[in-house]
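Comment thread on ticket #2218

A.B. wrote:
> Attaching the input chain for the structure job we discussed in standup.
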Amino acid sequence: MIFGFINKLSIMNLNPFSKTSRSARLLLALANKDSARTNYGMFLTSSIAPKGSNVNPTVEVLYKDGKKLSIDSSKINVDRLSDMIDSYSRTLKFKDMIQK
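C.D. wrote:
> Ran it. Output below, let me know if you need it in another format.
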């Protein structure tokens, strides 16, 4: 994943025991590496839902240019989720390369 163009990554209503939270859990594991947070200055937040909760997990991404992306991650796998997040990051990377 391209973390260099992400200011904030929020994973809300994460139920670690729910099957619908699998892609959000895996994304949290990817983004929670020290290299991703320290090298790029990304701010990572997460909130855990109660064990019996049926609320779907939501991933919110705030990019460096101010665009906000909100995704319901209950019905998509982690590969599709990372592709959705990376698609706009690739656009910002391309714009950055053109400006230099």
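A.B. wrote:
> Thanks. Noting for the ticket: Residues 38 and 59 are 21 Å apart (CA to CA).
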